[in-house]
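Throughout our pipeline, every protein is held as a single compact record rather than as scattered files. Nothing more is needed to write down the fold, since each code stands for a local backbone conformation. For reference, a complete record is included directly beneath this paragraph.
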Amino acid sequence: METVFTLDHDVCYRALSARDRRFDGRIFVCVSSTGIYCRPVCPARTPGASRCRFVRSAAEAEALGYRACLRCRPETAPGTPAWAGTAATVTRALRLIEEGVLDEGSVPELAERLGVGERQLRRLFIQHLGAGPLDVAANRRLMTAKSLLSDTSLPISGIAFMAGFQSLRRFNAAVRNHYGVPPSSLRGRTVPGTDGIELKLGYRAPFSWDRLIRYLAYRAIPGVEAVENGCYIRSFRLGGAMGTLTISHDPARHGLRALVRCEGPVPIRQIGARLRRLFDLDADPLAIHQALARHEALAPWLDDAEGLRIPGAFDGFELAVRAVLGQQVSVRGMVTLSARLAERCGARLPETLTQDSVARLFPTPAEVAAADLSSMGLTGARAATLKRLAEAAMADPALFAPRADLPATIAALKALPGIGDWTANYIALRAVGEPDAFPAGDLALRKAFGAGGDPLPEREVALRAEGLRPWRGYAAMLIWQSDPARRVKTEIRETENAPD
């Protein structure tokens, strides 16, 4: 039976009194005497228990008529971590809402995309978040606007449209209604001379930044992305904008800082949503660690893996191309082929946006579909798979977006020519963000689950991993991110046994 996070008043109040970060993003406290809602880590004096009402989301607090605290800033709280049972449907929906599907789309369209009825989707949102999809979408627009007002010097009119509001009048009315002041009163101090827009992205501690950044660095495509001075840097193209992102770790504030430098209309909400997925910021690390520690074969690997995250992807098509290029070659071979592809058909960034070693954009599906892929070191079958993948991505822009469930996602990916079970699970794990995706046939996993003996058969690995649901993808990443010396005395390739 599914477990739903319950709001026991006494437990929540103890968490508030202790400023317990484990509850940050899971609960918010509404204070009746002030009409304000806060995060449980708010530094303000703890109100009396009788004046506190606990809710499951910022959207629920606002639907009840409470205003966001300007001190603890609910817009910087970690996101919803649930991935089990019906909560997984809500989590998938939240990801799509963050991408802006309800800014112009409808709830029925969102429900159809997730394979549920409209009434069921509304019921699940009320059950898990205490507010409907439209209320949540409105809250996310407002939270984005508040963050930009506080942390940037962008024009207020620009902030309104970046946050997803359809008019400046609606934006002004929403801010006045929820904060009791005009947008200009929420302007914060900005750093003079800052080149770009800075986003602050919170997470639940612990967070293994060094482990994650090593994984990304080893797979960085020269010219497109790099890891330098402890920062992850990459180019991007999204909508009508292109530019670079520089992400650094801010452990003191339990968050990341992302500097966005770009030309064109800045899709700031979509950038923030993709960065949260890339760095897996909404994970619940303690719950995941506990689940993995209960598995006998994995417990020894957890010694240095506190705060484990799944490196996602900023762009689903890019990750899918990497997966295809990496079939039956080493990781370094995949990087070499990816760099050749970017050099051959990816556009260069304008000189004003070039940053250090990042100067080129990864090619779009249209560019790959039109490119001559001969003399790149690819087999004819692999080049044909890339072409068909590009054509599929052009035909279905939502190809790498969340679907109804993991089996539906795997089935849709395996329907593409040249995509087998390993590649489909890898894409689902990193590009779509399905934490239970698990390529049981991977050689590294077969050896690890064999506890140092002969590699187990794929079916046996899948059977032994059943108890890890819904976190099987973290088990795979735990092994892939570990020191090669511990990987059964051999270099394990993620794609060594991938299908042609």
The first strand starts at residue 28 and ends at 31. The CA atoms of residues 328 and 496 lie 5 Å apart. The chain has four domains: 9-74, 87-186, 197-283, 316-486. The two ends are 40 Å apart (CA to CA).
